[in-house]
Amino acid sequence: MDHIRKLLATYAYNILGSYEEAKDVVQDAYLKFSQTSHEAIENKKAYLIRTVINLSINQKKRQKKLVQHYPGQWLPEPIATEKADTVINRKEILSYSLMILLEKLNAKQRAVFILKEAFDYDHKEIAAVLNITEEYSRKIFSRAKQQLKEAATADSTIIPKDYLDKYIDVIYKADTQQLENLLQKDITIISDGGGKVTAAINPVSGRKAVMKFLLGVYKKFYDRKDIHIKKSNINHQPAILYYKDNKPVNCQVFDLEIGHISRIWFIRNPDKLQSL
Questions:
Q1: Which terminal Cβ of the chain has fewer Cβ within 10 Å, N or C?
Q2: Is 156 within the bounds of a domain?
């Protein structure tokens, strides 16, 4: 059953927002599977999926408690979705914007939402996986949709091909006028250093503050010969990766609305950049 590891990791990652934790959950599921009589398991794939999802829900509850004491902002671990050999199934990976929104839900709401929206489960199937009634599954899904409705985001996947080239060029030249044209008035930057590297503890909001932050950070940390910049696609959204000595030191994921950048997420915690 090793051939479904990538699929199982995708279920776990979408619930947890952490690929490293997802790998541990999948490993625990296989261990449990190996210790169970296979003759008693009617559908081995369904058993593993059910085990992974329920282990992920439990782990997400523990993670939520730990995040309360996290130094600064906590962001989901980025996954490169342009790679043909990506570490987990690309198609079912949720967008980065949606991963951020899902943090508003509790673990069970998140699991129901993901099963319905990302994996096309019906409520009968969800009920079987989570050992709940179909009616309760519908109620959980409805509540989750309602909680996410107010914070709905635009589709960030459709952008001009040269948009990131333009952004990189503007930052490199410190062209404040052109940079201002790229940013929404109420743009926000959120950084995650995990207390291990330098990162803004609080969000930076507003065009002027963000412009100052972007140009200052680039000049101080990335305007160097030993830094290599690469365009990427992270969780189906445009992104820029900064590498030093062939190791990623910053992943910037962009959210665009009506042709302007509305949010940028800086993922700098080295533990969250390992898959890149």
A1: N
A2: no
Per-residue pLDDT band at 150 (split at 50, 70, 90): low
pLDDT (tens digit, 9 = 90+) per residue, 240-252?
999 999 999 999 9
Co-location of 168 and 145 in the same domain:
no
The pTM score is 0.92
Cα(129)–Cα(34) distance, integer angstroms: 20
Nearest CA to 111 out of 156, 29, 154, 51 is that of 51
What domain count does the chain have?
A: 2
Tokens of 189: 């930057």
Q: Give yes or no: residues 14 and 122 share one domain.
A: yes
Q: In terms of residue numbers, what domain contains 197? A: 163-272
Cα distance between residue 265 and residue 252, in whole Å: 5
Question: C-alpha distances in angstroms, 171 versus 143, 198, 259?
Answer: 42, 20, 18
Give the other-Cβ count within 10 Å of 45's Cβ. 13
End-to-end CA distance of the chain: 26
Shared-domain flag, residues 81 and 46? yes
